[in-house]
Automatic annotation (TrEMBL):
Keywords from the UniProt entry: ATP-binding, Cell membrane, Coiled coil, Kinase, Membrane, Nucleotide-binding, Phosphoprotein, Transferase, Transmembrane, Transmembrane helix, Two-component regulatory system
Listed name of the protein: histidine kinase
Keyword Cell membrane carried by entry: yes
Domain of life: Bacteria
Span of domain Histidine kinase: 41-255
First and last residues shown, out of full length: 584 to 847 of 847
GO cellular component: plasma membrane
Length: 264
């Protein structure tokens, strides 16, 4: 973004010319955009669950409700509370990452085993989608296991969230030229080409009729990017509208695993 303004040049109060000033205001504009998106995200993502929790608790306090209905209301209150917790945790994570307060507990572990456990857990709790997992382990990496779980969880939740019920989400991990390569492929709504360059920015959300119905803060992928960066990895995405998206992450394989492979 360029801001242009003209300035009169005078010498001894005599007008001698005009100076045209061009200023690059990309950073300021970007900061303004983020502030606006932050306010709109917070107001929507906080208000919606809060008003639903408030409404349902009020209803239950003021009226006699039969047990099946009670259960239904409590299920909503429970999931909306979960949504608020995720929101607060995401905000805090972004805050910590920016102030470099985030501490990483590095260890060497098998990425395949960690992913298998996580996928089992997702599989049990999401009956709406079919998850398939393909990997031959062990593939050892040096990383913070909790952060890697958070990364995979974010990508898996997105794959589920942005694809219709009954869709398949395929996770694959392989040793690819000395890198642990994770691919997460969904059959969802896809991502428009013009969104690609902003996808990993804080608070960025694709804004269309489909995504508006699906809640979100636009923080998940920015957290993923930070985690990947901290582990000297890369994250890429390929997508086709209406057909699905594939996120690919690569991490360097731990030295110990390279030696093991060599000895075999
Ligand atoms: P959100 O909380 O909105 O899901 P993210 O940072 O995780 O935030 O993702 C940013 C945006 O990228 C989302 O709002 C969505 O528009 C798009 N997106 C992310 N993952 C997918 C996916 N698997 N399929 C389609 N769109 C996606």
């Amino acid at each position: 973004y360029i801001q242009i303004y003209a300035e009169k040049i005078q010498i001894n109060q005599v007008w001698v010319g005009t100076m045209l000033v061009l200023r690059d205001v990309t950073k300021e504009t970007e900061a303004d955009r983020m502030k606006e998106e932050f306010v709109s995200t917070v107001s929507h993502e906080l208000r919606t669950p809060l008003s639903s929790i408030y409404g349902f608790t009020e209803l239950m306090l003021n009226r006699e409700i039969d047990p099946p209905k009670q259960r239904k209301y409590l299920t909503t209150i429970h999931s909306e509370t979960g949504r608020l917790t995720t929101l607060v945790n995401d905000f805090l994570d972004v805050q910590r990452m920016e102030s470099s307060e985030q501490r990483y507990q590095m260890a060497t572990f098998d990425l395949v085993q960690l992913a298998a456990e996580l996928i089992d857990f997702h599989d049990a709790s999401h009956t709406t989608h079919e998850l398939s997992f393909e990997a031959v382990g062990p593939i050892m990496i040096d990383a913070d296991a909790e952060k890697i779980k958070q990364l995979l969880n974010n990508l898996l939740s997105n794959a589920i969230k942005y694809s219709p019920d009954g869709g398949n989400v395929a996770i694959r991990i392989e040793n690819h030229d000395g890198f642990a390569e994770i691919t997460i492929r969904d059959q969802g709504i896809g991502i428009p080409q013009e969104a690609m360059s902003k996808l990993f920015d804080k608070f960025y959300r694709v804004d269309n009729s489909e995504t508006r119905k699906i809640g979100g803060t636009g923080l998940g992928l920015s957290i993923c990017k930070e985690i990947v960066k901290h582990h000297n990895g890369t994250i890429d995405v390929e997508s086709t509208i209406g057909a699905g998206s594939t996120f690919t992450i690569r991490f360097p394989i731990a030295v110990i695993s390279t030696i093991l492979t060599y000895e075999e």
